[in-house]
Write a structure and sequence with these properties.
heterodimer, A: 4-stranded antiparallel beta sheet, 11 strands, about 55% strand, globular, B: 6-stranded mixed beta sheet, 4-stranded antiparallel beta sheet
């Protein structure tokens, strides 16, 4: 079975550029989560969706960040414009409502220079 | 307020010995789940074990067991017979119940080093 698929795995971009991170959840899962991990702040929940609807985006740092889930099999996290402090590993995870465990993708390692 | 507390930033254990990683949590919801994840140096997040708030018995998965003390709001992970491959970051997490959407929060993690 395919797990959560994230792309790109690694991205290096210049400050001010737009970054789009992509996620394909596990088929059949109806909850999707975006996390950011840094040494300083650990794992932070940015936003989560249930049945494609954003439930809680209080973790989104600022207006430069936006997330969408146009259908059950795809989500994007966009940063525009990017800044060096956005450098982090961004994880997407998904779960099935009737089961509690969430499963993570391998992460997107973002470096903004 | 911190929902998940892991008071041990780092732990050392000798190979083949058992080790306990501490986790305490804070919730007023009667329905919740507690989880442990392992993050090796390669970076992926690996699910280890789950305990539901209504489960009567402590969860076990191979060498992993969860020491669940509900009244104390603690959910410690016990790893028996440590192996070198157990060296990693370990995160405790909680998912609180609800009818629509369930948040999922992580603690700061404990770095476990297994010594040969």
């Amino acid at each position: 079975d395919a797990g959560v698929i994230q792309s790109p795995r690694h991205e290096v971009t210049e400050m001010g550029q737009e970054v789009t991170l992509r996620c394909k959840p596990i088929s059949g899962h109806n909850s999707l989560f975006w996390y950011r991990q840094t040494m300083m702040r650990g794992l932070e929940l940015l936003i989560y969706f249930n049945n494609n609807v954003p439930i809680d985006d209080s973790g989104m740092p600022e207006d430069r960040f936006s997330a969408k889930m146009p259908n059950a099999s795809f989500s994007t996290l966009k940063i525009q414009p990017s800044e060096p402090r956005d450098s982090a590993v961004y994880f997407c995870a998904s779960s099935w409502d009737s089961r509690n465990t969430i499963y993570f993708g391998e992460g997107s390692w973002l470096t903004v220079v | 307020a911190q929902k998940i507390t892991q008071t041990q930033p780092g732990m050392f254990v000798q190979e083949k010995e058992a080790v306990t990683l501490d986790c305490t949590y804070d919730t007023s919801d009667p329905s919740y789940g507690l989880f442990w994840y392992k993050q090796p140096s390669s970076g992926e997040m690996i699910f280890l074990i789950y305990q539901g708030s209504y489960d009567q018995q402590n969860a076990t998965e191979g060498r992993y067991s969860l020491n669940f003390q509900k009244a104390r709001k603690s959910a410690n992970l016990v790893i028996s017979a440590s192996q070198l491959g157990d060296s990693a970051m370990y995160f405790c997490a909680m998912r609180e119940g609800g009818n629509y959407g369930q948040n999922f929060v992580f603690g700061p993690g404990t770095r476990l080093s297994v010594l040969p």
